[in-house]
Amino acid sequence: MDTKRMSAPASLWLMSVVCFVLSQSRSTCPENQVLHSNGRCCQYVRCHPQHYVRICNTEGGVDVCVPCGPNAYLDDPTDSYFAFDCLEKNCGEDTVPIDSPATEFDGSACFKRCRCNPAKNYCGTDPCRCRYTLCSQGETLLQNCTCVRLQPPYQ
Predict the structure, then answer these.
(1) Which residues form the signal peptide (predicted)?
(2) Which terminus has fewer CB within 10 Å in the chain: N or C?
(3) Based on the domain organization, do 71 and 115 belong to the same domain?
């Protein structure tokens, strides 16, 4: 039996063609579907700000828009192609979470979604530079770091 061997360049070419064909078999999805990093094709969705994309669980399933949790945010719209997670507000013990970035109230403030917490004796408009301030008995601390006398009865 006479068997002929394929030349090295020809066999490399054939292997390249096979690899290319195999790699192309999952590089596309049906129309209106997106190929995710998990290898699954899901139906496309576009989400409003404050929502993230939950990737579908089954092949051909629908991605879903899910609201961010109470201590998280996502300012920009997102979609199945750019499925970003919500960002945590990450407020320290001297601050409390808020719904808007601090820059909305103070243009030079850091871009955190927190505010200084006067209830814990921290004040100021920049959550990255809260000042610890104590007021006299019968006074309360305001956000602008001033102390004001409480009206009786004190609460």
Answers:
(1) 1-23
(2) N
(3) no
Buried-exposed string 28-46: b where 16+ CB fall within 10 A, e elsewhere: ebeeebbebeeebbbbebe
78 and 106, same domain (yes or no): no
Q: Which domain holds residue 55?
A: 29-88
Contacts of 111 (CB under 8 A, 6+ apart): 101, 102, 103
**76 burial level (CB within 10 Å; 0-12, 13-18, 19+):** exposed
Backbone angles phi, psi at 16, to 5 degrees: -65, -45
99 shares a domain with 62: no
Pairing of strands 51-54, 33-35: unpaired
Residues 54 and 69 placed together within one structural domain of the fold: yes
